[in-house]
Structures are given as C-alpha cells and as structure tokens.
Specification:
Helix 1 packs across helix 2. The strands form 3 sheets. This protein has a 3-stranded parallel beta sheet with strand order 5-6-7. It has a two-stranded antiparallel ribbon with strand order 1-2. A two-stranded parallel sheet has the order 3-4. The protein is built from 16 helices and 7 strands. The termini are far apart. It is mainly alpha-helical.
Amino acid sequence: MTNGIPGARARARRVAPELMITLGILAFSLFALLSTARRALFFPDNFALNLATSLGDPRVASFVADRVTDAILKEEPDLTAFRPLILATAEDAVASPPFQALVRGAARAAHASLFSEGGRTVIVSIPDVGVLVRSALLKANPSLAAKVPERARGALASIGQRRSDQFIIRPWQAARRSLWLAGALLLSGLLLTLSGVLLAFDRRVALVRFGLDLLVAGFVFMLLVPGGRAVVGLIPQTTLAREAAAFTESGLEALVYKGPAGPPWPTLREMIDTRERVLVTIESGRPGFPWIRPAFEVMQETLYKFNTPSELSCAPKRGGTSGSLFLMNNWVDTTPAPKPSNAKIVNGYEALLTRAKECRAARGRWPNLVAVDFYRTGDLFRAVRKLNDEAAPAGN
C-alpha cells in the first residue's frame, strides 16, 4: 500500500496540470459567451440594433407584419375583409427605414423596463404603426388608407405575463449585473492555464495541450452561429404555425385531406366517406406542413381582376395551364369592397353555367372550384350541381 502512494501522487501531478488547463479554457469560453451576451442583450443600443436588423429575416418580417395587421384590425374590425391587402402592405412597411427606427426606439424602452428595479414584464410595442401602414397604402388604395386607424400600436412581443416567464426574466436580470462574474471568469482562466503550464513536468507538452484545447473551443464557437441558424430554419413561419394550430385546436385537422396531391384526385363523395373532406392550400409562403399544399403547384386558375361583368375571362393566371385542379374566379373587382349588385349578376344560374362552359371550351376541362363573392346571392349551388352533372360523364 505504501509503495502505491508515490505512484498515485505522480499520476495526480501529471493529471492536475492538464485538468487545470482544461478548466482554464472552459473559464475563457464562458467569459467569451457572457461577454458576447452582455454586448448583444444587456447594452440597450446593441439590443435595439440587433432587433431592428432581424427584420431583414423573412420569417421575422412575416411575424411582425402579422402582429401589425392584428393591431390595426383590433382598432378597426370593419377592415377584416381587407386583411390580405393590409398584411401585404405591412410586410413592405416592416422593411422600411422608418419602421426600423420605430423598432429601435421601442426596443430601448422595453430594455429599460426589463432591467429597471422591480421590472417584471417587458412589452415591445411599436407606436404609430397605423400611420406607417396608412402612408404605404396611400398610392395603392387611398380609400382604404383613409380607414386605417392612426392610433394603432403593434405589440410585437411580450414576456413576463405568465408565471413561467419569470424563470427567464430573473436570470436575465441577474446576468445584467454580472460584470463581476465576467471578470472572475477571465481571471480564473488566466490563473488556471498559467498554473497548469507552470506545474506541468513538460511545459512544451502543456503548451501544446493548451493550444489544442483552445482550438477545440474555437471550433465549437464557430459552429454556434450556423447551428443556431439551422435550428431557426426548422421553425415554420409564425403566421402559418398559428393557422395550423387553429386547425388542430378546432378539430378541423382531423377532416383534412392528407392523400397524394395530384391526379387522380378523390371525388367529393370519396372524401366525405373517408372523413377527409377539407383540402387546404396556401397561395404564398412556405407550406411547412405536409397537408398544407402550395396552391398553384396543384391548381390552375382564370384571371381574377375584372372591372365589369362583361370582362370575365377564362385566360390563365397563376398556375399556368398545368395544374390538375381548375379554379374559376367569378367576381367583379370593386376595391375596396365588393358589391352585392355585381354578385347578383355573375352568380346567376345561367351566367355561371355559360361561363363554365366557355372555360371548358377554352381550357379543355371543367372547373373543379368556383370562387365567388356573396355566395348566398344568385344561384350558385344549383349551378354547381348542374356542373357536376355535366362533368360526370366526361370523368372530369
């Protein structure tokens, strides 16, 4: 037993310097992470700049535009019918320098609130978003722009309103006062690595070990940024995720068609019998869910902007002429709001049948889908039943 003690001490003297060098590198790494976090998060100007710069990411811009649109519609619910147009305008406005300036100011205010004494809730709220969206709409649609409320404020994010949020805020607030910790980590790293080199039997070997550990730490740091971007890239767009969640929460997802997106499509009766009678498509953006299909990869359509009933045409628009489903757009555009008087004309039984037959002749197939304004006006359902009877013998 006595003879084993010197051997154990020798091993300890060899291992201890290596362990000290490794711990020193770890302390340096933690110091670098903390210093980077302090600059990015705890300095208000850097925090505001990073938040404004993030608007260049399409996913962030889409999320912010969605929040801005919700804020406008909350103030003026009568504009709900124009949500797509307001959302598209908001997406353009979000990328503008004036909006980014508003975001920087809001971020500084939220930062000050979070790190103030007793701060328990932080809300990044953008004032005057109504003014910006109204200005962006003026050229495209002055009448709609006049209805956008100027007093709308967009709450882009909030934290602290739930009990679980405090598990994030309290460590964040503690880290704000962690300058001493950064200094302690730096000093510990210096002392540990220096002691490890000085106590080593072979200092050249110890220096090589120090260099290798430093290289590994640097490589890990290099992987952090692309790794973080890869993780973010897996996250679906926020608006679409919310819509998908609404399908799930309402129970509608259980009725969604999840079969192949292409011919031969099931008939409506087959979809009803299998309890998958809802086909979900998206006109723009990245689907992100297998049952949300890109509309114009599976569908072709007619033109959709007609100023009078006489202008209705069967000429192709989105989807070209290759889609296996055929959408017939059948309304008169009277932006900013459709008129029931026009729907009474184009939704009539004879008008719908005549146009569907014209599109059958022009495009070589019957319409599978008919899109109208004011579906209760006119005789849409009787016309569609007749079209089903007409199309059935041809197998279309």
